[in-house]
Automatic annotation (TrEMBL):
Residues bearing PTM 4-aspartylphosphate: D54
The HTH luxR-type domain, residue ranges: 144-209
InterPro entries: CheY-like_superfamily, NreC/VraR/RcsB-like_REC, Sig_transdc_resp-reg_C-effctor, Sig_transdc_resp-reg_receiver, Tscrpt_reg_LuxR_C, WalR-like
Lineage, broadest ranks: Bacteria, Bacillati, Actinomycetota, Actinomycetes, Micrococcales
Entry-linked SUPFAM superfamilies: C-terminal effector domain of the bipartite response regulators, CheY-like
Species annotation: Cellulomonas algicola
GO annotation (BP), single: regulation of DNA-templated transcription
Record's protein name: DNA-binding response regulator
UniProt domain Response regulatory: residue ranges: 3-119
Amino acid sequence: MTRVVVADDQPVVLQGFAAILGSAPDLEVVGTAADGRALVELVTRTEPDVAVVDVRMPVLDGIAATQQVVARHPATRVLVLTTFDLDEYVLDALRAGASGFLLKDVTAERLVEAVRLVAEGSMLLGPNVTRRLVEDFSRRVRRPSPEFDALTPREREVALAAARGLSNGEIAAELYIGESTVKTHLSEVLRKLRCRDRVQLVVRVHEAGLVEG
C-alpha cells in the first residue's frame, strides 16, 4: 500500500484530490495540509511514500516545503502540482528535489497513475519542462563533473537519453536493448553519480553541459 499526503490551499482541490487518491485500492491518503509548513509537519508525523504538493501555498510555498521534505525525509517523493506546464516555479521545484510535476487539471486516472509512477521511482517531466531545463542550463557556465568519467559507454548513453526526457521503453528502443537492461543501467548511473532519483540525474547531466539545447 502506497501512503500519500496531499497539500493544497484550495479546499475543493484538496478534498477532490484526496478523494480520488483514496479511492484507489493500492493508495492510502494518510493526511492533508493547506499550507507548506503544515505539509512538512504532516510528513514528519506520517512518513508517506508520496507527497502531492501545490507549488503556490501560503505560510511556506511548495518549493520551500519540498526542499524541507526532501532534506528531512528522503524516502518521501514529492509530486508538485502546477496550473501551467511552463510555470516559472516548476524548475525550482525540480531542483529542490521534486520527482516530477502534474497539471492541476489532470484527470483522475492520470493523477492516480502519476502517484504510482513517482512511488516506483519514475519521473514525470513534460516535454516543455525538459526543454526549459536545456535552455536554462545552456545559459550557464558548464561545470565538469569527474563522476561522469566513471560511467561505462553504455551507461553514459542511457544517462544522456534519460536527460532528453526519454522513457525506459524509448531508451530501450533507441539503444536496441531490453527495458530491464535500461533499468539496470539507470540504477548503476544513479549510484555512481549519487543522484537520489531520475530527476536529479536529468539536472546533473544538463549542469555538466552534456546535452545541447
